[in-house]
Amino acid sequence: MGFDTNENGQESITEFFLLVHRRTGVQNSKAVDEELENRIFKWTEKETGSLFSLLRKKTERSSRRIAFQERLEEGYSYGGNEYVIKQVKFHGRLTICNLQGLQFLALGSNSLTAGLLPSSIFNISSLELIHLGNSGLFGSLPTDICNHLPALRHLRLSRNMISGTIPKNINNCTSLEFLCLDENRLTGEIPDEIGNLQSLRDLALGSNGLTGIIPASIFNISTIEKIYLSLNNLSGCLPSSFGQWLPNLVRLTIGHNKLTGTIPNSISNASKLTFVSLDGNSFSGLFPNTFGNLRLLKLLSLAGNNLTTESPTTEWSFLSSLTNCRELEILYLDSNPWYGVLPLSIGNISANLQYFGARNCKIKGSIPVEIGNLHSLLVLDLSMNDFNGYMPTTVGRLPNLQRLNLRNNNLLGSIPYELCILENFYELYLSANDLSRRIQPCLVRLISLRYLYLDSNRLTSDIPSALWSLKDILEVNLSSNSLSGSFSSDLQNLHVRVLDLSKNQLSGNILVTLGHIATLETLSLADNKFDGPIPTTFGILISLVSLDLSNNSLSEYGSMGIASTRGDVYSFGVLLMETFTRKKPTDEMLVGEMSLKNLVESSLPHAVTEVVDANLLRDQNPFDAKVNCMLSIMDLALNCSMESLEQRISMKDALAKLKKIKLQFHKDVGAPN
């Protein structure tokens, strides 16, 4: 909706007011609410300005006042006897008074600094909606919060810093449909009185510090659609009748608490459930086969519990029950002591299944070839189990697969060629298995591949040179294999961040172009058979955090062909120059013949203040002592980075000289040593 460009935009604003009025008394008002929000979000600065001006005139005439101390940055709206204030950005304190008749108060996503709103707000008996989420509010909830709010249907205070307990008189808000206090700092127990809110549809108390049991009365609210209690310290068991009185429940999220006991079979009576998250608790016992009766189920997360199967050597019969859940998209079963074997019926699970996770479940046997029937699968994670046998070639029939994680198993044989036809492949983790033979050269077809982990296997032969044409790959770990050969490709076009080729049998020179990979953060070539010089280009790896070249036949050669251990001294000299000049060798000003070393050398002794970091000299007292210290450090850096190995000082001498510079500086400024 756009406002007219006439003097006061009266026609379009009137249209807006009619929309607000239409909201009153409508039994099913969701569509009107959404239309109202969409229009507000699309306002321009000019439109909100004209509306603000008109609002001010109307509030003056009706003696209703909203006082904003500080400033209003974006628009809000008013209509008749209703205020609708949405997506406004207030800063500072907010005072609201004399607003009898107010029905809707939405100040979400602001930066109010007065704790909770004044208690007078909770005395406005006409209020139906209070939305103060994500507004930086702190303090505690008034103990009489519901004494004067008989019409309140929405209470949203999510994402603030509200502490204290949930008032027991919350049940006095008998019309309450939405109670959202999640992502705060609430403590204490959930009041049993919440179970008396027989119109409640959405209960969100997650991400707090709540303790005690979940009141059984909550699970008797027949109108409730969503329960979010995750990320608290709740304990106890679910009632054995759970689900019998929840005909409208759609989402159940009670993960990451301290809940124990079994998952009741009666959960299937909540037949509208689409989203069930029970992960991160201590539930034990068997998987309820009645989950298969939840025909609308889209997500089931049971990860991080103590659930088991009937026998540690038999197939997972419970997976067969899930074949009835034809809408299932996400199945998390990770980190449970399931034991047992994956059944062939895994291929009959929902055709819509996108994520199957059974990591760290002590599963034995082979991976069924039927897994290739899950054509919608995006992620398959069966890592940290006891799978044996060969990788099923049928994974090549998963055209949408983006991540495959089979690390830490006992898989045999070669990497299947069929993996190479998965065009959407983004992550491949096959570490810590017993895979052998060579790395498939066809992996070069996986142009979307970003993470490749093949470490800790028995792979042999050379690294396919075509692999380095995957220029957008981010992490490559081929360590702890039996790979041989040498680098044979130009690597400078890679954008890789992690490159680990350690603990192999690679040989030859280390390519100079490795030093041109500006994104490289971790490089390990340790425990190989590399020889020759350490590339000086390593000194310009501006993102490098970790470098390991140990246990090779490198340590750098001098002009007489005698091996030297002074290669690290050169890097130390460059590091000193980078630190105290706050410049990198790749700095834009260092072009042509001008290197960082040349810049520093040309500044000594009279112009050192022009190259060192100006922040180091900002304090004029003691300026001379600082300049002398910088001169000494730059001189040391140049002595460390001499081109000739024989002319470089040793690391021992460099350290001794650095200590002397420190002592002299303390003496010059009169500081204790």
Could you tell me the number of beta strands? 38
Specify the CATH homologous superfamily of the domain at 567-669: Transferase(Phosphotransferase) domain 1
The CATH class of the domain at 567-669 is identified as Mainly Alpha
> Helix count?
8
Q: Name the overall outline.
A: flat
Radius of gyration: 34 Å
Q: Would you tell me the structural class of the helices and strands?
A: alpha/beta
Helix content: 10-25%
What is the CA–CA distance across the termini?
A: 72 Å
Mean pLDDT: 83
What would the CATH topology of the domain at 567-669 be?
A: Transferase(Phosphotransferase), domain 1
Biggest sheet features: 19 strands, parallel
Q: Per DSSP, what share of the residues sits in E-state strands of 2 or more residues?
A: 15-25%
Runs in which pLDDT lies below 50 for 5 or more consecutive residues are: 1-29, 36-91, 557-563
Can you name the CATH architecture of the domain at 567-669? Answer: Orthogonal Bundle
